Amino acid sequence: MTLLTADSRRLMFACGVLMLAGCAGHSGTPSTTLTQAAEDAKPLQRCQDELAALKQYDAARFEKHNGTLTVLLNNSAQYLLTRDKVQEDIKSVVDSIFQAQLARECQAIHIALYQSIVSQADEGINP
């Protein structure tokens, strides 16, 4: 597995968001589409930020989720390179799969961060 730098991961995330947001059927002027893509990217940026925060609380959970996210990003990047060569029915299904996988992993990161922060706050209070 290739390890990605934070900048590479953010770039891949941004490209994925722009591509997947664009395939969702946004219409309108290019500036409207770009504005919508930027809005679509906010939850994914929050996911990256929460993953970085998790590293401060629980290195093992960080490594697990970082590895999963890296695999998802590598797989989605591979798909995005060939996406324009496949039929619409495939695009529809695979786009949804990648969006769901990213959403699921980002939720898992959010939960892990929450649990780690609460666990630390609880130390010493409840023996």
What does this structure look like?
The chain is mostly helical and 127 residues long. The protein has a domain at 42-127. It has 4 helices and no strands. It has helices at residues 6-23, 30-57, 59-82, 88-122. The termini are far apart. This is Lipoprotein.
User: In what range is the share of β-strand residues?
Assistant: under 5%
Radius of gyration: 17 Å
What is the count of β-strands?
A: 0
- What are the segments in which pLDDT stays under 50 over at least 5 consecutive residues? none
* Range of helix content: over 70%
For the biggest sheet, the summary is: none
Number of helices: 4
Distance between the termini: 40 Å
Order of helices and strands: HHHH
What class would the helix/strand composition place it in?
mainly alpha
Q: Mean pLDDT score, rounded?
A: 82
Morphology call: elongated
List strands and helices in order, with pairings.
Layout: H1 6-23, H2 30-57, H3 59-82, H4 88-122
Helix pairs in contact: 1-2, 1-3, 2-3, 2-4, 3-4
Distinctive features:
4 helices; 127 residues; mainly alpha; single chain; Lipoprotein
Summary of the model, kept short:
The protein has helices at about 5-25, 30-55, 60-80, 90-120. It has a domain at about 40-125. The mean pLDDT is about 80.
